[in-house]
Amino acid sequence: MTSAPIASAIEIxxxxxxxxxxxxxxxxxxxxxxxxDLPVPRSFAxxxxxxxxxxxxxxxxxxxxxxxxxxxxxxxxxxxxxxxEWGGPGTVLNVGINNALHERLTAQIGRANADGVxxxxxxxxxxxxxxxxPDLFTLDGPDALARALDIYRGETDEDFPQDPVKQLSEVLxxxxxxxxxxxxxxxxxxxxxxxxxPLGLVVxxxxxxxxxxxxxxxxIQFIDPVTGTPRVTGRFRGQHHGQTVGSxxxxxxxxxxxxxxxxxxxxxxxxxxLIRFGIASRERxxxxxxxxxxxxxxxxxxxxxxxxxxxxxxxxxxxxxxxxDGIIPVEEALMRVEPRALAELLHHQIDxxxxxxxxxxxxxxxxxAATGRIVFSASAAQAAQSRGEPCILVRRETxxxxxxxxxxxxxxxxxxxxxxxxxAVIARGIGLPCIxxxxxxxxDARNRTxxxxxxxxxxxxxxxxDGSTGEILAGAxxxxxxALDDAFTQLMDWAEDAxxxxxxxxxxxxxxxxxxxxxxxxxxxxxxxxxxFFDAERLPAMREMIFxxxxxxRRLAxxxxxxxxxxxxxxxxxxxxxxxxxxxxxxxxxHEFLPSDRDGLRELAASxxxxxxxxxxRVEALTEFNPMLGMxxxxxxxxxxxxxxxQARAIFEAAVEAGHKGDPVVPxxxxxxxxxxxxxxxxxxxxxxVAAAVRNERRTDFTYHLGVMVETPRAALxxxxxxxxSAFLSFGxxxxxxxxxxxxxxxxxxxxxxxxxxxxFAEDPFHLLDEDGVxxxxxxxxxxxxxxxxxxxxxxxxxxxxxxxxxxxCDRVGIDYVSCSPFRVPVARLASAQSAxxxxxxx
Length: 843
Prior knowledge:
This protein is an alpha/beta fold.
């Protein structure tokens, strides 16, 4: 039987065998600083296995610990987890202080300073190691140290430990066990660490920041943490040693500004040396670092260096700058930027340095921040826009008729809904900050008020919404402008060069298409034509068509819409010249175009010159128990074929007109909600007939592709049959998820948070593609489609097309391109590039 291993510590030297995985990030960072010949105090690394042994009662041998003490006789103990984001037990300073050392320090730095150093360790040791009541040791005055030692003796029945080795041993044991405590486990799991994540420890000789000459402690960083631009910031606290503040204490900022004196002026040689350390750290550590330092009589000691905390925009600029300077490869720069962070750069953001008056939270549905006056209707939003007043449209939940109000507003807030609800999808498409599912607010539409906890806001009151965090703030917050600067452009150029999946945009309007081109989308992967019918000029004709009794009457009503749709498509083709445009035929149920309230029905009856009773009966007849599973999509196209006939004609005529002005246009027509091959055959026959008619009338030829939107489980399972009659398949993962789970994407937000919190689902499946269920259907569909039609193009055009993890899945299963909201195109492009880099690296 072998004996248990003994815990140990090794000195951190340039050649010591230290790695991040075995000793933690801080130990490895200190070794790199030592290799750079920076003045790092003597340091020792306790590896993760040893820390685990210490927590189980196997201490480091006393002889080994005794070797650690030297110099001033004081050491500090700091955590060294594998990742700095995982945190760890608090640093313990001044380990090794005892009566004898206290006397030597008194002669060296004065009694008051020596008392302060001793007292701070007694307080820390009593609270964190001996587990005594911290209130007992909250003492001040000239006799505070003596009283603290007396209290310790009275509470423990023994003198404060004088053996430095015992002190250090107990500190190491306490920190090791604290890391294994349930609270620490939960905290690091919340930061993304595994529950059993290892911990290393660093023991370092302390440099005294008290005494004669220029003494103190400080930090320096070399970029603006918000913008990422080069800027020296930080402060130096003279005569500050941990919690001990000596006589003559002062605070100096690193550089001169309005706040007061600067170290740059009072100690230029030291300042220049710190700048040199920063440059060296950037080049050798390949990162922008914040350096922690101590001055002892004007001599610098570098205590630690950590990655400078930064905003998303600063992180992007730093990565690009490091690559431009040849410090890191371009591929590494691409991998360092979190794709989701790009969403923040495309919109205004709340300045993280500014105060926030938080009143409620909701689901962050569309990124960006906006300030405006509350309005409760689309008409009020349009009126505010006409007056030049920014407004936030507040609704219980939006409906298609609210689209005009959403376009007029600077932000949208809804009480109900989830990440794929109507408000969320439309807001992301037009780049509008949006919060949905804000169940903490109560909207009183009649009195035009919004209640959030004890506060009641009225229409016209100003609020700020942060669609990146889901926070609702009272009043106007300080906003930062979008960061579409040269660094952003450079990163996107590199992402494009890196390859990966194609990225198209979901675009329903010319404005969407222009945004898509600005972000260099490779085409339009989904144009939802039904949004065009809600325009005020078209809605009457659409309603007239719905109330028509014969196919001929329906055709006459649709002929009024035809030139408008043709103009829409012509403009899209012109904007996207040289790029593919996929147009989805009409999809929603007809009842969405009809009013549901009494006033609306009365107004409709008057416009159609029909009795109110007839209008009411027709609306009731169109009402379905579950309209999303009813007469919509291809089912509507087969039963009311005049709609698809009109749309096909508008598409072909637009292609001819746009082709006369530039490159030939090859439109891609997509049939929604298909479940059977016969549906495709029926629609194809009519579309081919319309194409032939347009060719004869225009005396010109053109090409088009017909494809299918795979939104039902059956379509995925029968993808082989369907592929034989299709040029392309596009998985509409929003509806596919809805139908696979039996979840309403509009209502799931009410309970999804509870489901995720209790582990029913790892993540909201409308936010992150469910690889085990929905993903299995996608994989099955891809394999069966390619088996029957190897040349078929396959894409994903649901909201998952803009989700980085879902894009990685799409890349693995052989999807050709993804299509997402225009403002998510940069996110998708970077995620696609990262997936390609991972693939090349064999990961």
